[in-house]
Amino acid sequence: QVQLVESGGGLVQAGESLRLSCTASGRTFGSYDIGWFRQAPGKEREFIGRVNRSGGSTRYADSVKGRFTLSRDTAKNTVYLKMNNLKPEDTAVYSCAAAAPSSMKYNSWGQGTQVTISS
Known about the structure:
By secondary structure, the protein is mostly beta strands.
């Protein structure tokens, strides 16, 4: 299994940007697709996007398409989630998770990082 740690969360104003990082330990990072999720208080966890092993393929939820961008630096064992034009409804705990390329099951999860957007 791979261990994941998220960072980069914080408090920003609406319209601003943040970049979250998901850094993995272990040599197997390149074997996994990485997904990002978020969960706001009182709401179910929401899928945000997923990047494949090479970083060459991404997909996004409609709620963030055009504002959020995933990228992957294999040399640094890190996946980045760049979030632009943030809105108060983007406030949530953001988590990354690893899945085998052919699977929708995420086996390893980070602890999450809080993102708060003020209006």
